[in-house]
Structure prediction request, 76 residues.
Amino acid sequence: MTKYRIQICIRRGILDNAGSAVTTALKSLGFPEIDNVRIDKLIEIELENADWDKAEEIAKSQTNEVMEYYELEEVE
Prediction:
């Protein structure tokens, strides 16, 4: 089994509504030093055979490429 990690991030310049809500909540909980929170997705998959192309295909299928980008890495 080969394990892959996919991190999907919102592109800079696009408003992250969930991140803004968390920023506001943290400030109200007593963390005034928080300036900005961004919410990303982390997906870990295991494939029977080492297949980078299949992992990349899965990553692309989970990413809205207009608003997001992904980073793919093989994990040991």
